[in-house]
Amino acid sequence: MKRPAIFFDRDGVLNEDDGYVYEITRLKWIDGAREAVKAANDAGYLVFVVTNQSGVARGFFEEQHVQALHAWMAADLATIGARIDAFEYCPDHPDAVIERYRKVSPRRKPAPGMITDLLARFPVDLSRSILIGDKASDLEAARAAGVQGILFAGGNLAHLVKSALQPRSSIGD
User: Fold this and answer.
1) Neighbour count for residue 16 (Cβ, 10 Å)
2) Is 155 left (phi over 0), alpha (psi -120 to 50) or beta?
3) Torsion on CA atoms 76, 78, 82, 84, rounded to nearest 10
4) 94-123 pLDDT, tens per residue?
5) For the sheet containing 46-52, what is the strand order?
């Protein structure tokens, strides 16, 4: 049975973006982010993170750091009964200093590859799914994958998510 999903960008949406966050001690949740994930879980949505991580390609940190941070985020969310169903990240960048990551990737937003990879693995109802991002490239990736994109311009993420999860009444109701 297909379920709606929320795709969250990470830096600038779930956590404050102070430039190449990869250390657990530097991660600061956006106001209402943990509650937003829990609200989506409680509403029956699949919850995914789709994040470009060019800091790997630039040599600032390694993939194992990204994976460790995501594991910590998942564990921290579990303390309030919330969960991320899958984390997807793209370490590639066309101007990478590390050769193996120097490429144009179909997974790097604004390309939709991370989203379409998740759609291939999970039973997602696209018509009721949304992506929340803080950049035009996030919304372009959503559009390319056939998912509604919502721009997060700051504030309390839980308020935005709860309003996006409200049932939409049809004309005449």
Assistant:
1) 15
2) left
3) 80
4) 999 999 999 999 999 999 999 999 999 999
5) 86-90, 46-52, 5-8, 130-133, 148-151
CATH number of 9-35+51-99+113-121: 3.40.50.1000
Residue 156's pLDDT band (cuts 50, 70, 90):
very high
Q: Is the pLDDT of residue 171 over 60?
A: no
Residue 9 a catalytic site member: yes
Token couple for 33: 């982010």
- pLDDT the model gives residue 147: 97
Give dist(CA 64, CA 71) in Å, integer.
10
CA nearest neighbour of 23 among 31, 35, 15: 15
CA distance 24 to 76: 11
Active site residue: 11, 85, 92, 134, which one?
11
Domain edges within the chain: 9-35+51-99+113-121
